[in-house]
Amino acid sequence: MPGYVLTASTSATCPHGGQVSFVPSQSRVLADGSPVLLAADLATIAGCPFNVSGAPSPCVTIQWLLPSTRVMVQGSPVLLSTSVGLCQAATQAPQGPAQLVAYQQRVQAT
Q1: What's the CATH code of the domain at 51?
Q2: CB 24 within 8 A of CB 35
């Protein structure tokens, strides 16, 4: 499914309002002036208030599903606005999908 290429400037949150920070693993390929994000890039979450039965269980990372099937950078697929980011707790328990707030809208891929 086509979508816009995600970059280090992408703004996202976990489903509970925690802020996502992207750490791109490459800086060679840019879209709209920012490094393109790859499926294996680190995405950390800070400030998630989620808890289970009164015990804190914040979202801390994102596992990405459905990256680009055709566009690769250094052998890794790029992330798209149509990719699914599954937020996870430190125990790797899934806690819901990441919400993309803002992203570049010039470069598209499939």
Answers
A1: 2.60.200.60
A2: yes
> Residue 82 corresponds to which tokens in the numbers above?
């149509």
Global model pTM greater than 0.85: yes
Q: In Å, how far are 39, 51, 54, 101 from 84, measured between CA atoms?
A: 10, 23, 28, 14
Digit-coded pLDDT (tens) for 15-67: 999 999 999 999 999 999 999 999 999 999 999 999 999 999 999 999 999 99
Quick check: 92 and 22 in contact, CB under 8 A? no
Neighbours of 96 (CB within 10 A): 14
Indicate the residue type of 49.
Answer: P
Give the residue numbers spanning the domain of 83: 3-109
Residues 6+ apart with CB under 8 A from 85: 12, 43, 62, 63, 64, 65, 97, 98, 100
